[in-house]
Design a protein that fits this description.
Elements lengths: L8 H24 L38 E7 L7 E6 L2 E6 H5 L4 H6 L17 E3 L3 H12 L2 H4 L4 H4 L2 H13 L3 H17 L2 H4 L3 H13 L3 H17 L5 H10 L2 H21 L12 H4 L2 H23 L13 H17 L1 H4 L6 H18 L5 H20 L1 H4 L4
Parallel strand pairs: 1-3, 2-4
Antiparallel strand pairs: 2-3
Length: about 400
């Protein structure tokens, strides 16, 4: 008697995939500990999130369209000859994905596939019964790119120069949404690397992309990334004309007070500059647009903040920042006297006084330029004290930035 054995390649494929994934996880840990991320801060243990309601992830009101208008994604609609695939519809695009890539670690997809089957409907097994998702096709493509990628593709050093920022954001957002922890961590670390290195893709990114990066950092409770993004954004907000509205929306949503204060400050100074340019007297500052004048509460808040900033400037002008005595300075008291004189002169200089009175950061910037030159030429202050004095201006500036929001909360 001849015995025939039927081999089911689907089970073998799943076993091989699980084996490869275990090996990939070991490789990822080794690469993660290597010098590729030697300059990136270690991410703290993620905060445990509440369990996601899987029904919130499925879009039940996706508009009906003729079957002939649906298109199959070129890269991620796989022909099903062996079983184990699931079909998704995202917008008007169909994706046919092997479940092994969606289930190889705990995620919301596991809950999705465990939902009770509806009698007579095999959801996800045909184009007619594709599982509808509420993402965009581009977002889902980028998530699948990450799920299908080899560890060497995800952790390549050169990848930072070619990987689009939008792709990293898409992976971060969807990995967070579907609770795929390892890929969320990868995307957040990549964003942190971009922020800490000041990479051109982030420096030139639109305010909308910056807002998305801030949002995912806040949602993931990733403090190092939030701090790095904030540090990069503040100079752009203060000294450029970037669109501040998307940043303000995210900052208000997550209570990012430092960014809120900088944006409100920038807005108020813009009103004061408009009055200055129009030839109004200082007593008339600031000159509000009609939408502010028509809102009495908002107008009163800005006037109170303006008055508070004027008082801050008078305090700054009269009190040069303190600095510690350097070890190698034998005449520190004389240095302090010289520093006080130079500070007063810079505060009253024309380059400083021509700026709006409430523009404390602008005036402080103008003073620093003058003081660098004055300290270099002065013989009444030692080199050590000169360096310490300049550093004290930086500290003063950081303190002012950190406290800007308080000026808009007094009313």
């Amino acid at each position: 008697m001849v015995h025939f054995y039927v081999l089911n390649p689907a089970h073998k494929l799943c076993s091989i995939t699980r084996w490869l994934f275990k090996g990939s996880r070991r490789i990822l840990k080794q690469v993660h500990a290597s010098s590729v991320f030697s300059g990136v801060s270690q991410v703290e243990e993620p905060v445990k999130r509440a369990k996601v309601n899987i029904l919130d992830l499925i879009q039940t009101d996706l508009p009906q369209v003729p079957q002939s208008t649906l298109i199959r994604d070129v890269n991620y609609y796989k022909e099903d000859f062996e079983g184990g695939f699931c079909i998704f519809r995202v917008e008007s695009t169909l994706f046919k994905v092997h479940k092994c890539f969606l289930l190889r670690e705990s995620s919301a997809f596991g809950d999705m596939f465990s939902l009770p089957a509806i009698p007579g409907i095999q959801e996800g097994l045909s184009d007619d019964s594709a599982i509808p998702l509420s993402d965009t096709a581009e977002q889902f493509q980028d998530l699948l790119w990450a799920l299908y990628a080899l560890p060497s593709q995800l952790y390549s050093v050169s990848e930072i120069d070619s990987l689009p920022l939008e792709r990293v954001l898409n992976v971060a957002e969807l990995a967070h949404k579907y609770c795929i922890a390892s890929y969320e961590d990868w995307a957040l670390e990549r964003l942190l690397l971009l922020a800490q290195s000041g990479h051109v893709s982030l420096r030139q990114a639109s305010s909308a992309l910056h807002a998305r990066a801030l949002n995912i950092a806040a949602l993931s409770d990733h403090k190092p990334l939030l701090d790095a993004l904030t540090q990069r954004l503040i100079p752009r907000i203060l000294w450029s004309d970037m669109d501040r509205r998307p940043i303000l929306d995210i900052a208000g949503r997550h209570g990012l007070s430092k960014l809120q204060g900088v944006i409100h400050y920038k807005e108020l100074i813009a009103y004061e500059r408009a009055a200055y340019a129009a030839g109004h007297k200082p007593a008339d500052y600031p000159l509000f647009p009609s939408e502010v004048d028509s809102d009495p509460q908002r107008r009163q808040e800005l006037l109170a903040a303006h008055h508070s900033l004027l008082n801050l400037w008078e305090c700054i002008k009269a009190n040069p920042p303190h600095f510690m005595e350097p070890h190698d300075c034998p005449t520190h008291l004389d240095c302090l006297a010289t520093w006080s004189d130079l500070w007063t002169h810079a505060a009253e200089a024309q380059q400083t006084a021509r700026l709006p009175a409430a523009d404390v950061l602008g005036r402080l910037k103008a003073m620093m330029i003058l003081l660098k030159k004055a300290l270099r030429e002065s013989e009444g202050i030692s080199l050590g004290c000169s360096l310490a004095a300049l550093e004290s201006i930086t500290v003063e500036r950081e303190d002012i930035v950190a406290g800007l929001m308080s000026h808009f909360q007094q009313y």
